[in-house]
Design a protein that fits this description.
The two termini are 18 Å apart. The protein has 555 residues and is mainly alpha-helical. The protein is 64% helix and 0% strand. The protein is elongated.
């Protein structure tokens, strides 16, 4: 669902982050790269002293824990591996077992990782005689998460670990890291499934989770793990305002971890803070780029997290009406995917193909019809990308009066949507995305070349399809369809119904300029002058960084 010239220095990126508020937390100022495993700068101040650790081994242990909280898991593994190589103490192997196991973005790790986790926790138990009582309890709790057989069913293991992690947190209520790890253990038993479609708690577990992390934040409002899990814990709830201060604070707690620089945007984009959401992701991509291209790339994430940051920056910039930034990020994302993801992998999944279509979506969002017509047709085996190519060309044809070709492209989209060979997209249904595209394109053709009122049922169907797409951040479809519905209702001479559509969109996407403009036009058409004047002031604030002029809520 910013600044165009980005910094390339980590210190400059940090300065930009600090411009909005409090001073940085004390931490290392520079990377230590002359070691076999680097000690990275700007990873905050989380420290968990463990028995039997040398000074350097403790630094690696702390870095590993910080990176677990930042979901920089491969680098966390390297850190704990190095701690274990240096000291071979029980807790360094506990850290290895933690990092090689499941986490929120990978509920079922590959078997070789689980084998390493089992070996690590076994070694931790062997060495536990020299550990403290609390450390022994931590090792015992984490051991419940693993089995000697890496193919063992994960659900009972994850639940067993959560039971022990929760009891451990209750036994040591003043240990904030045990509180945070207990919350994380619960999240992994019901990944991404805490709230119903109305944002209400699914069960008592959700209530426990939120309360648990809020208690941790009362202990330390700067704890990066607590903030990170809190954002993921409440981002699909009906009360996002509670997380906004934490979302704004998170980047400064670990400014060297790009994923945490980015994470606040999950809340900010949903609360109408599109400028901050865009800037956080531009900053996060700049931090990523400090690492991409370095000779030692083991454990770094130029594919997943980096692409996610660029994708997010594009989405947020579109809400602001910043076409130059949005298009820049869209082309950047497509170029990175083409370089970093092989063609066979692209053909096998609609997910990377979605990233390849982002420039097409950006062009359509801003009505750049000539640019769309200059885009070459994708490879035939890229079914999803090909369908979106037909979709945007159909929009361009419709907008420029070529009805016959627009209809041909609409039929192509519908045909690919029904193709059994269409690859999946993960949590979001690629088939439903293309059903939405076919329906939206048909509505566009009807509204422009038949009668706007005849397109209304089609747009209502498109809204319904979009509402039922799986939740993701940023949103999977590039434009809220209620904006298009509202624009067509205005064209059909139904400003009262248009007002309803725009207000509903503003409920979902607060203070977005597209719907504020549509609402303004709807109110003016009804003679509601005073209210229109108030909405105009809101629109001018929302559109303060835009580089386009609107004449309607759609192009």
């Amino acid at each position: 669902m910013s600044r165009t010239n980005r910094c390339t220095s980590l210190l400059i990126a940090l300065a930009l982050l600090l411009a909005a508020g409090a001073p940085a937390l004390a931490e290392e100022e520079t990377n230590t790269t002359d070691l076999a495993v680097p000690l990275h700068a700007k990873l905050g101040t989380v420290s968990y002293p463990v028995s039997g650790a040398s000074e350097l081994g403790q630094q690696y242990f702390d870095q590993g824990l910080r990176l677990v909280y930042a979901f920089w898991m491969a680098e966390a593994r390297r850190s704990f591996d190095e701690a274990a190589r240096l000291d071979d103490n029980a807790m360094s192997h506990w850290g290895r077992a933690l990092a090689y196991g499941p986490y929120l973005n990978q509920g079922s790790p590959p078997e070789d990782q689980l084998e390493t986790a089992w070996e690590a926790i076994t070694r931790a138990r062997e060495l536990s005689a020299a550990a403290t009582e609390k450390e022994k309890a931590m090792i015992d709790a984490l051991a419940a998460r693993y089995a000697e057989d890496p193919a063992a069913e994960r659900e009972p293991l994850d639940k067993a670990y959560h039971k022990k992690a929760r009891a451990l947190a209750e036994a040591y209520p003043d240990d904030i890291d045990l509180q945070v790890l207990a919350a994380a253990s619960y999240m992994n038993t019901t990944r991404w499934n805490y709230w119903d479609d109305d944002g209400k708690p699914l069960n008592d577990g959700t209530l426990w989770l939120v309360g648990q992390i809020e208690r941790a934040l009362e202990m330390d409002s700067n704890h990066p793990g607590a903030i990170h899990y809190y954002i993921h814990g409440v981002e699909a709830s009906d009360n996002l305002a509670r997380a906004v201060p934490h979302a704004r604070n998170l980047p400064r707690t670990m400014p060297g971890a790009a994923h945490l620089v980015h994470m606040g945007a999950h809340i900010l984009i949903q609360t109408g803070n599109y400028d901050e959401a865009a800037d956080f992701n531009l900053d996060a991509a700049a931090v990523d780029e400090l690492y991409i291209g370095m000779p030692d790339q083991e454990g770094r994430y130029p594919v997943g997290s980096y692409q996610h940051n660029v994708h997010f920056a594009w989405s947020a910039a579109q809400f602001e009406g910043r076409s130059a930034v949005a298009l820049q990020q869209a082309y950047k994302l497509r170029d990175k995917v083409r370089v970093q993801v092989g063609p066979n992998r692209i053909a096998e999944s609609s997910r990377p193909q979605l990233f390849l279509t982002i420039p097409l979506f950006a062009q359509a969002r801003f009505g750049r019809w000539n640019d769309i017509m200059s885009e070459p047709q994708p490879r035939a085996e890229y079914l999803f990308e090909t369908a979106i190519w037909h979709y945007v060309r159909g929009l361009a044809n419709s907008a420029t009066g070529d009805v016959e070709n627009a209809r041909e492209h609409q039929q192509q989209v519908a045909a690919i949507a029904a193709d059994e060979n269409l690859p999946g997209m993960g949590r979001v249904s690629a088939k439903d995305m293309l059903r939405l595209a076919a329906t939206a394109l048909e509505a566009d053709i009807v509204s422009r070349h038949d009668a706007p009122e005849k397109a209304i049922p089609l747009l209502e169907e498109a809204v319904n399809i979009q509402d039922n797409l799986a939740y993701t951040e940023p949103p999977p479809w590039y434009i809220p369809m209620r904006q298009t519905l509202g624009a067509v209702l205005l064209e059909a001479g139904q400003p009262d119904h248009a007002e309803v559509a725009f207000r509903e969109d503003l409920r979902d996407w607060p203070e977005n300029g597209w719907s504020l403009f549509g609402l303004l036009e709807s109110l003016r058409a009804q003679g509601k002058t005073d209210e229109a004047n108030r909405v105009q002031r809101r629109f001018l604030r929302a559109w303060s960084r835009a580089d386009i002029v609107l004449t309607a809520a759609r192009f």
